[in-house]
Amino acid sequence: MQTVVQTLTWHDTWYLAPEIVLAAFTIVLAILDLALPKRIGRNIIGWGALLGLIAAGVFVGWHIHDLSTWEEAGKEPFRNLLDGSYRVDDFGNLLKLVFLGATALIVLASLGTTRTDEIPIKGEFYYLVLPAVLGAMVMASSGDLITLFIGMELLGITSYVLVAARKSAGISGEAAFKYVVTGGTASAFVLYGMSFLYGMTGSTRLSGIGDAIGNAVAESPAMVYVAFFLLIVGFALKLALAPFHAWAPDVYQGAPTPVTSFLGVVAKGAAFAMLYRIFVNTALYAYADNTQLRDDLYLALKVLAAAAMLVGVAGALRQQNAKRLLALSGVANAGILLIPLALDVTNFHASLFSEFIYYLLAYVLMNAGAFAVVAVVARGAKSEELSGFAGLYHRAPWTAAAMTVLVCSLAGLPVTGGFFGKLFILFGTVQTKEYWLAAVLLASTVISYYVYFSFIRQMYLRGGESELPVTVPVPTGLVIWICAAATVAMGFLPKPILEWVDGLFSLTTDFFSR
Amino acid sequence: MLDDLPILSMIAFLPLVGALVLLLVPQGRARLIRGMALAFTFAPLLAAVALYIAYEPLLGGEAFAEKLTWLSVPLNMEAGLSANGATSYRLLFDYRMGVDGISLPLVLLTGVVASMAALASVQIRKRWKLYYVLFLLLQTGMYGVFLARDLTVFFIFFEMTLIPMFFLIGIWGYFSRENAAKRFLVYNGLGSAVMLLAFLMLIATAGFSIEQTASGAALSFSGSYDVLAANLADPNAAANLNGSMFLSDSLKGAAFALLVVAFGIKLPLFPFHTWMLKVHTEAAPPVVMIHSGILLKMGAYGLLRFGAFLLPDQLRAWAPALAALGVVNIVYGAVLACVQKEFKLMLAYSSISHMGIVLLGIAALNETGFEGAIYQSVSHGLISALLFLIVGTLYERTGTTRIDELGGLASALPFTSGILLTAGLASLGLPGLSGFVGEFLSFLGLFDSYPWLVAVGVLGLLFSAVYVLRGVLGMTYGALPDRFAGLRDVRFVEALPMIALTALIVLLGVYPSLLTDAMAHGFDGALKLLQSAAGR
Amino acid sequence: MTMLGSYLTLAAVLFCLGLYGVLTKRNAIIVLLSIELMLSAVNLNLVAFAKYGINASLRGQVFSLFTMTVAAAEAAVGIAVLISLYRRRATVNVDEFNELRR
Amino acid sequence: MDIVFSQVAWLAPLFPLTAFAVLTAMGRGLGKAGAIVATAASLLSFVLALLIAAERLGDSAEDYTGRIEWLRAGGVVLHAGYEVTNLTALMLVIVTLVALLVNVYSLSYMKDDERISVFFAYVALFTASMLGLVLADNLLTLYVCWELVGVCSFLLIGFWFRKPEARAAAKKAFVVTRIGDLGLLIAILLLYWNMPNHALDYTSLYNVFHSQSEALSDSLTTLIALLIFLGAVGKSGQFPLHVWLPDAMEGPTPISALIHAATMVAAGVYLVARTFDVFEASPNALTVVALVGAFTAIFAAAIGLAQNDIKRVLAYSTVSQLGYMMLALGSGAAAAAMFHLFTHAFFKALLFLAAGSVIHAVHTQDIREMGGLGRRMKLTAWTFGIGALALSGVPPLSGFWSKDAVLAAALEKSPWLFAVAVVTALFTALYMARLFFLVFTGSSRGEAVVYVHAKESPAAMTVPLVILAVLTVAAGFVWTPWNEWLPGWLAGSGAGEEEAGAGGWNGVVVAASVAASLLGLLLGWLVYGRKGAAVSAAAAKAPGLVRILERKFYIDELYDIAFVRPLAVLGRALHVFDEVVVDGAVRLVGRSVQAAGKLNTRLLSGQLQTYGLAALAGAVILIVAIAGRRFW
């Protein structure tokens, strides 16, 4: 059957406003960067990028508000563009907000720390971040394999360049190359899987696939399995889930610190968004027709999650380089973030998205904050080794305190966002009776105490050989403290966020309804 | 007059307030910092005493209970639930505080030991400010654990003791303090992780409650003790929720086993005890006072609280095992204590031995045993606090606490030695001192059901005599080595907490009703449950 | 359906070749090219499905067009990165790109 | 007749307790003044004791009991109470009297010690707890005081704490007696759970056991009796727990007199007498008591023959005499036992104090370095002589009468026990003679200087000697064949002793005992008393035997091998176990995690294609494991 292609109307541009804003800012800033004479510092472009991100964020917020008004009006709160290849719904919007916020934090932090010797062409960094976020946003709100793929590649390619931005250091180039190859291979796997998905169902529309997948499994299950497992492998590579994680530490170490935290937060989040879009819309949607497929796939996801959590923390045990350590803890956290998706949806447990986004938010905060601290410390100590943190308690007590909060959150100690994020995920796991997974999560948490202990030890129990105080640039300090404060706030009052998410998001409307 | 102001929260959070205030004081003002820390340590103690005076055993702590919904987090509802007529589906984190005959003595103990430790902290020579901030945070955690009435709140307070303790060990300890701290953190982290799993199991299966509102059934999960107790006690509770919630015995058993491990680590139970040896030897004496004086008691408290009040069947099923383990603890710890050369290690092992007696009391499953367990916890808390106080002063003067390196101190430090001797006698269970009452009650309680185990356990008293005298006499009696000739006895500041603790130990030994009366009726609910459990 | 089968087989072979290249070839250029090989396998798949698959439509072909363009961009970036790296290391041997480790 | 003083009997322990409190509060500064205070306190309680006894002399004085609730835990209600019976009244007099005398004596004996006030504080605490023990109306209260007297004895044995021997002796005393205490504790637990309505007081015991009620099975009764007896064995230094008592002589001599001769060690006998109903309910237990007593008596007497330390000789004789008392108890004659306890308290205290006065004079305890002191210190010699004769059972001194009663009881029980007792009597006389002659007669064997300066002790020390000597002579007449007042009076109440007149006038007994004692004395004179008799005469004749006796039958060595060493070995073994196995397991877990981490780090070789291969392997495993299940 031939569907009539719905064309893009002017009216629709309103729904694309955030994306358009970002694109516009990218172009303007690029031109600005060329036009501006050398003597003028490139921080202006940084501030511009920040402005763009905020503007986009405002529009997203506006959309969220619109949608909720529709909901009150009894209208289904989502909008299909290009007959469903692009969806503006709460799922997308919430994630977009997270991405934009995270990027804004990172950019703000980098305004303080990045020096010319780290990123020679600062402007480049700033106006390349925007298209990357744009890609992430597209991934978050696509309803079609093609658009998903475009978003993925937009994000991917720009981040390749960003990783390489630290021209001075050879490792940057090496990291970029490794990232290119891994990323390329990952995309190849994902695409190959997509192609089979399309082949089995005859549609690239997620909704179409969801409708057709049931029969497809009935006809030729093997092909469908092939499709999905290719996808899983591809995403496992992108998310650096164990044992697909080995590239992550290298890339994270080689990349400029702001880029690293961008990869750790936004790129991961976007990949998760894509994973949600595909799996919920197809496998979970087809649950009624075919439980077996879904069970197998989700079991695979659970296993991956478990492996990631354990390998991540275990690997981090012996790391001496702060960025590599955080990279590996990122592996573990990716595993944790994967759990909600992998859990069954039962009468009593349907809050997978709340669990996911809450922990994602907490993770964004602690990660961005931690990397900001790393950047500051690295600046002082001229190295990214843990030893750079030695005696931080004397040299910069407040920064040390903030770092302690962030580390506690990473370790999932109360009362922090990380704690409640983990708590909700655990509760979901227990509700769906996946006790083994809960046990693994807890075990990895306990091991992670050892890991994060190394930060604490350096900061409090070691006298720094250089007792000279660390200078914290205002913007970076601001970010650090925003992150720390927000982390604590999320620990004491998770309610507002969750109420909000619960009010906006609903599996049925955001994914299933056509 | 007390029941109109939230005294329990005051007790729990005054130290926290103190910590926050302390943060604002400049590092240099050592005296001011110390004074404020003392003030904020004694304040909750006074509050606790006021509570003790106002507490009516017959009425229980109802008058003081506090409850306010801290978080009520929405859980997304699937079509299935709304089909069952549920209109809202939430996860409740209630902030519930309460006091009863079990927690009251321990709260008092916390107050006393913490205050004495604060006084003893004169020995702390570096990083005053951080020390006292952490010290106060730790107190909030400890009070909270004993006062909480909701699993999540309990867990949070429990974890709150973890971090400050970790720093206190790691920064102000002796030579291999980092190792000890790391061990403490990971081992106890493991414990609390296991505990959390058990808690979540309970919440997710037994924590539900349905209230019919005008708009329909409001379904919620919470960890509040009352809800859990109600559901767990009600055999057909599962049916209340169209069967899809399950309270299978196997699950209850698993949860209880997890709890035994979790609190066993704290207690410490025989195979899980090695971590606390390091803490005893490596941490600074005031910190050990807190650790061995209070933190260990959380294990006993948790077992009683969640065993006797929530999972009586399982406690009953486990009682023989617990009793046996208790005896193992007693004898194992005592025998090991007999051969230690390091006094602190000897004390550590004796703690293991004494906590074994607590286990016996719990395993007795009758009021006598339970009260014995709590009494023993309190008295051991006081005694070991006193002992480590002395250890601190001795180490300060002699630079060692090895039994074989010391001797004849009675001629150089008569006062300290006298107190040390008294403490030793108390810890070997001399009647007239607090140690005897707890031990006697525990044995008495258990004897009814397991006379032979008691007969073996009593050996612990014999061994305790052996190692205590070996240690104490070895250090205080005999000829005084010349290098100690110039030692000066304690100053008044140091003597004060010693005298106070000794006085308490004697008081509790001579007039035990002080505590037992407060504990009376504290276990009525649990005993009822246990009876019905026996019935089933 | 036989046609489809053979196309898919060919695509599979290509994909595996590409993967093999990525995993074994020492020359960075070849590695990048192998990735392209994998992507072209995908394209072959898409086109084949678009022709012979159930409810065949232009979608697959459109998809493949997108894939090619993006692949081109990716390759370009890849080469650029490689060149900058080559400037510094004076080698394109993948084995020697191991400054980042442990 | 009204019994006003009995009602305030609780004051008796209170006086010394207050003294103790004052002395500890004041601390060392008090010095001599403290001593005065303590002595005054003991005087007060002595007066009170006399008054109580006086008002009970009339036969029909009923018992008085007063109690308070000590602790209520759930169902358990434990009382603290006191009870005044004729028996307790008797004990009160003994204890307070000896305590008073010892206090007076110590005023001068200890005057040069800078810790004198500490000493008196301990003594006061001891007196208080001993009186509490005597007055207690139930077993728990008794147990509490029981432990307290133990601690005081421990403290006083170790009073000269700088001496390593003192430290060792103190530790030994505490630990060994504790073994017995645990028996008592278990007995109490058993009684608590088996007595009707959990009563622990003597009255209920009397009701339950005496009326042969079937509340408790025979075997249980026997078990309880034996456990109680175990406690007595520990305290009264009966075999096999006697080892601590001789070592306890490390303490100051007045303490040996007070605690380790007259009062505390007798507490075991008192305990058995107090709970005699339990024993009567179980004949087997009684037999055990008798046997242990008899054996201890002869065993200790034999050892006493070969000791060279004046105090140790007395110590072993104490053990042996306590054996006598146990024998009497075992033979069912509680009154006889109490009678012997009564007399023994006086003459043994006398002997110890006299010995103290000797030691005070010559600063040695080794009788081989003494001799001829009789000429230098007449009073001491005379009093000591009286005590020795009394102990040897020479009529008409008190020792004769009480020993007579015991022997009679033994004969009733069985001729063998009687025989043993008689032989013991002979030994007793022998070693007392040896002691007396070696110390007081002949010529000095120590350094001449010491001998020259040795002189009679001051009045504060001699006066108590005289008083005790008088009592030693007189005390026996409360129970003579023609005046059976004591047993009747005791039977009047308390321990309830129908077959009181166990003694009676029995020609055989008298003849045997007199013969034995005289023979012993004669032997002693022949070997040690005559001119030119060598100190080591006996050793020369039978060296092997003497060595065994000197080494006290190697009991200490035996225990060392049997218990002390194994415990230490076990401890070390467990220590290793703890380090290696238990902690090793923990470390192993940690290590394995670390190893996993290392493995992961090894994977991160920087070789991109290695990463790829690892990933591929993982992918294959995953797919085969999960998708594979469906298709194969």
TrEMBL record, chain A:
Natural source organism: Cohnella fermenti
Organism ancestry: Bacteria, Bacillati, Bacillota, Bacilli, Bacillales
Enzyme class: translocase
Compartment(s) where it occurs, according to its Swiss-Prot or TrEMBL record: Cell membrane; Membrane
Pfam families referenced in this protein's UniProt entry, alphabetically: Proton_antipo_M (PF00361)
One Gene Ontology biological process: ATP synthesis coupled electron transport
Molecular functions per Gene Ontology: NADH dehydrogenase (quinone) (non-electrogenic) activity; NADH dehydrogenase (ubiquinone) activity; quinone binding
Keyword Kinase included in the entry's annotation: no
Transmembrane segments: 14-32, 44-64, 94-113, 125-142, 148-165, 177-198, 222-247, 259-279, 299-318, 325-344, 356-378, 398-415, 435-456, 468-493
Enzyme Commission numbers on file: 7.1.1.-
Xref: InterPro entries: NADH-Q_OxRdtase_suN/2, ND/Mrp_TM
Membrane topology according to the record: Multi-pass membrane protein
Name of the encoding gene: nuoN
Subunit structure: NDH-1 is composed of 14 different subunits. Subunits NuoA, H, J, K, L, M, N constitute the membrane sector of the complex.
GO cellular component, one term: plasma membrane
Function per UniProt: NDH-1 shuttles electrons from NADH, via FMN and iron-sulfur (Fe-S) centers, to quinones in the respiratory chain. The immediate electron acceptor for the enzyme in this species is believed to be a menaquinone. Couples the redox reaction to proton translocation (for every two electrons transferred, four hydrogen ions are translocated across the cytoplasmic membrane), and thus conserves the redox energy in a proton gradient.
Keyword annotations: Cell membrane, Membrane, NAD, Quinone, Translocase, Transmembrane, Transmembrane helix, Transport
Family label: Belongs to the complex I subunit 2 family.
Residue span, NADH:quinone oxidoreductase/Mrp antiporter transmembrane domain: 142-448
Name listed for the protein in its UniProt record: NADH-quinone oxidoreductase subunit N
Main location (coarse class): membrane
UniProtKB/TrEMBL annotation, chain B:
NADH:quinone oxidoreductase/Mrp antiporter transmembrane domain span: 148-460
GO BP annotations listed: ATP synthesis coupled electron transport; electron transport coupled proton transport
Record's bilayer topology term: Multi-pass membrane protein
Compartments in which it is found: Cell membrane; Membrane
Keyword list, A-Z: Membrane, Transmembrane, Transmembrane helix
Main location: membrane
One MF annotation (Gene Ontology) recorded for this entry: NADH dehydrogenase activity
Parts of the chain that traverse the membrane: 6-25, 37-55, 102-122, 129-148, 154-175, 187-210, 254-275, 287-311, 317-339, 346-365, 377-395, 407-430, 450-469, 490-511
Domain of life: Bacteria
Any GO CC annotation of this UniProt entry: plasma membrane
The family this protein is said to belong to: Belongs to the complex I subunit 4 family.
Protein name: NADH-quinone oxidoreductase subunit M
Organism of this sequence: Cohnella fermenti
Lineage of source species: Bacteria, Bacillati, Bacillota, Bacilli, Bacillales
UniProtKB/TrEMBL annotation, chain C:
Highest taxon of the lineage: Bacteria
Known catalytic reactions: a quinone + NADH + 5 H(+)(in) = a quinol + NAD(+) + 4 H(+)(out)
Assigned EC number: 7.1.1.-
Any one Pfam family match given in the protein's UniProt record, by short name: Oxidored_q2
InterPro entries for this protein: NADH_UbQ_OxRdtase_chain4L/K, NUOK/Mnh_C1-like
Membrane topology: Multi-pass membrane protein
Gene3D superfamilies: 1.10.287.3510
GO biological process: ATP synthesis coupled electron transport
Assembly, per entry: NDH-1 is composed of 14 different subunits. Subunits NuoA, H, J, K, L, M, N constitute the membrane sector of the complex.
Protein name in the entry: NADH-quinone oxidoreductase subunit K
Provenance organism: Cohnella fermenti
Source lineage: Bacteria, Bacillati, Bacillota, Bacilli, Bacillales
Gene: nuoK
From TrEMBL, chain D:
GO terms under cellular component: plasma membrane
Keywords, in A-Z order: Membrane, Transmembrane, Transmembrane helix
TM region positions: 6-26, 33-54, 87-105, 117-135, 141-161, 173-195, 215-234, 255-273, 285-306, 313-339, 345-362, 382-401, 416-440, 461-482, 502-528, 608-628
Residue ranges occupied by any NADH:quinone oxidoreductase/Mrp antiporter transmembrane domain in the UniProt entry: 136-428
Protein location: Cell membrane; Membrane
Domain of life: Bacteria
Keyword Transmembrane helix: yes
Membrane topology field: Multi-pass membrane protein
GO molecular function: NADH dehydrogenase (ubiquinone) activity; NADH dehydrogenase activity
Annotated family: Belongs to the CPA3 antiporters (TC 2.A.63) subunit A family.
Protein name per UniProt: NADH-quinone oxidoreductase subunit L
Organism of derivation: Cohnella fermenti
